[in-house]
Write the structure tokens for this entry.
Amino acid sequence: MNTRKFSIALLAVAALVLLTASGAWAETVSANGTCIFGTCGSPDTINPGQTLFNSYSGSFTLGNGDSFFITGTFLGQENSAGNGILFFPIFKVTYTGAGPSQADSFQVAVQQLYNTVITSGTFNEGVFGGFSGNVGTGSSVSYTNFLSGNEGPPLGPFFSPSNFVDNQLFSTSVNPLLLDEMDYNLTFAAGSASGSTIFIDQFPTPEPASLLLLGTGLLGLVRRRRKLV
């Protein structure tokens, strides 16, 4: 089994107005701690009252030759008082090899830095998603969140073929210059067919708009969104 760590450090490069969905940012991708795209290890900072939203995509190949495509969106937000943050990546990873996959495990890590007044608190963490295509039996997702380096309770593993939803509250002290890192551990079991996909913070089949809005409302404080309560 080949393990590769792919880090997407989502960087705010402009001051944005709260709830504004425009702006520029860049991501970095690293494999096993080695930066292969962007400037890794130095995410820019979201300040009070700022919002960051954009999309990203890219391809990567593991050492055994198995190839994947990742695409998604990112929302980062801090309230004007500097005492509440939101961190919400949505993405999917698709196996793009010509034949059945080998047993592949890798980590997608998403980072954002916030300039806050928070020194401790209780935070929500959560994840939902699912699998599509002929994903190999035993494919899975697990998740761990780190706030200022402090580890939250792990969620998962969640195994194919079922969709999954989970959330936890956890209390921790943090540095006011708060680094939020989300580590998603994905496994495509041997025999996954080309086009097999793992979804994070979205479900693999289209949902009615009303259900999507309901889900956003109900899960907004318990998902992978990192918000102080």
In short: The first strand starts at residue 2 and ends at 9. The first helix runs from residue 209 to 219. Residues 52 and 74 are 8 Å apart (CA to CA).
